[in-house]
Specification:
This protein is of the alpha+beta class and 215 residues long. 41% of the residues lie in helices and 14% in strands. The structure holds zinc ion.
């Protein structure tokens, strides 16, 4: 079932190792089907090089496995909490990508010094430390992410959301790039903040003008 979404979630997960956002089996991407409400997610602790679209696990919003022979990701509860509380979200991605996790280790949000930050709505907020693997992380994400598409989770890593699994993984790649540049900028001086007007204008451009009409 949900062949198209399985393929999209599979391809999104495979971007994680290709983009250098994960080591070993960490990281995961999920996507929600708008019709059934089911969520397709990566299986737990499975090597990326062995993954196929058939390995993706279909669960309902309560975490019951609807289809799949493998256990879903340990972060499934977290993803599901976000989907239950954010009807506008159809994709969630989680990584411990290096530079974003530097901000997580320091307990710092990422200020908007770059136009690419505006794509995510400006400052990338910080969520407090919450033990991993449960819906408590989901609650912290929902409480703190607001209208942004990414959140740094203290002492842990980063979560991104989107209107599809594809958008969530794009944001995961972007947030790592932003974290990397901001990290280096902070080492060299005092970066310049974008103001609210510039952020809104840039966000509007990314949302409404950027890219091809059929994409
Ligand atoms: Zn994690």
């Amino acid at each position: 079932m949900l062949e198209k979404l399985r393929q999209e979630v599979y391809e999104s997960n495979m971007i994680l190792p290709k983009a250098g956002l994960v080591v070993m089996t960490s990281g995961n991407v999920s996507g929600r089907d708008p019709e059934t409400g089911y969520v397709v997610i990566k299986p737990s602790g499975y090597k990326y090089e062995h993954l196929t679209p058939e390995h993706m696990v279909v669960v309902d919003l309560d975490g019951n496995v609807i289809e799949g022979n493998l256990k879903p990701s340990v972060d499934t509860e977290t993803h599901l909490y976000v989907y239950r509380h954010r009807p506008d979200v159809f994709g969630v991605c989680h990584t411990h990508s290096t530079y974003a996790s530097v901000f997580a280790a320091l307990g710092q949000p990422i200020p908007p010094y770059l136009t690419t930050s505006a794509m995510m709505g400006g400052e990338i907020p910080l969520g407090k430390f919450v033990p991993i693997g449960g819906k408590e992380i989901g609650k912290e994400i929902v409480d703190k992410i607001g209208d942004k598409l990414a959140i740094i989770m203290q002492n842990h890593g980063v979560f991104t959301i989107g209107n599809s699994a594809t958008q969530a993984i794009k944001m995961a790649v972007e947030v790592e790039e932003i974290a990397k540049i901001v990290h280096h900028a902070l080492l060299r001086g005092t970066p310049l903040l974008l103001d609210e007007n510039d952020i809104n204008a840039t966000k509007n451009l990314y949302e409404n003008i950027y890219g091809q009409d059929n994409n």
